[in-house]
């Protein structure tokens, strides 16, 4: 309070707020709700973006190669695979054969897609067990299918009359929601198929995947008058860019929704400040009559509005921090991520918007009070 005594306008503004604490608390509550809305929705957008990015991280660096529309072959041939491996020396090349089958256990049948692959560790993450660097024996099964059938590590699954022991359970998020259960077997399990259904190139990152995809496309396909697509070459980097753009738009939309709450709070502050100046019209008239200038009255009313913004902004930021801890804990599993600048900046934005909106809301009441005639004010 000793600091405020050096600024008479601020001291009077502080005392005026304390004269009607209920009205002050209600006005500050509106600001608190607005700040919590803005900051919480902004942090929710960041948490959703981080979760989506972490799930896409495993496919954003991949190039998927399948037979093109003009290919006479049903799949990628061994000769084409050798050419791909000769062109791609800076990334892993993983050939695959696919099928589908029913996996049975304890009287339950589940239809799953079957993938024959050797470098299982390049394509699959497991929640338990292992994804071998060279899958020669055994099998990997999607975790959801294993739970549905009551299977675990070491249990046998049958495919084409052969038994394979489960060596690893595939994380459910690895498929990002596409397709159903998966059974991964050694490539030799599908040896009756001559060609490969797909070849996946796993690059170091999205940019490297795009470069490799362009290189393969230029080698195998021709465009223009003699257009011919021998191999279909798709990169997931464009998909990831599109989803990132969507997430940024969603983040802005959430902030817009939160801003509506702060706008409503600003209207409430405008109403409170108008009521306050009307009730104190006589008091302000006395101040003007004893020599207080219009500028002093203007600063006093604006300082009241700013105090409301600071008070509501601080409480709102602390409440938003608690909401942020809960959001990140649920969505990303790491509550402390809320302290990173990418998400914590919304606490600062909310606090700054609270002060700005409060001061703007106090402009008209302050101008009206400062320009009211002292004589008319004393007459009531």
Notes on the protein architecture:
The structure is a single chain. This protein starts with 7 loop residues before the first helix and ends with a helix. Strands 1, 2, 3, 4, 5, 6, 7, 8, 9 and 10 form a 10-stranded mixed beta sheet that branches. The protein is elongated, with a radius of gyration of 33 Å. 39% of the residues are buried. Helix 7 (237-279) packs parallel to helix 10 (341-370). By secondary structure, the chain is of the alpha+beta class. The chain has 11 helices and 10 strands. A hairpin with a 2-residue loop joins strand 6 and strand 7.
Helix-strand makeup class: alpha+beta
**Largest sheet properties:** 10 strands, mixed
Our estimate of the beta-strand percent is 15-25%
Average pLDDT figure: 84
Task: Give the end-to-end Cα distance, rounded to a whole number of Å.
Answer: 32 Å
The whole-angstrom Rg is 33 Å
The topology string of helices and strands comes to HHEHEEHEEHEEEEHEHHHHH
Query: Looking at the structure, what is the overall shape?
Result: elongated
- The number of distinct helices, counting runs of at least 4 residues, comes to 11
Poorly predicted segments: 174-178
Search tags:
elongated; single chain; 17% strand; 55% helix; ten-stranded mixed β-sheet; 11 helices; alpha+beta
What's the helix and strand layout?
Layout (H helix, E strand, L loop, with lengths): L7 H12 L1 H36 L5 E6 L10 H10 L4 E14 L2 E9 L3 H4 L2 E4 L9 E4 H7 L6 E4 L2 E9 L10 E5 L12 E5 L3 H15 L10 E5 L1 H43 L1 H9 L4 H38 L9 H30 L3 H6 L1
Parallel strand pairs: 3-8, 5-7
Antiparallel strand pairs: 1-9, 1-10, 2-3, 2-9, 4-7, 5-8, 6-7
Helix pairs in contact: 1-9, 2-7, 2-9, 2-10, 7-10, 9-10
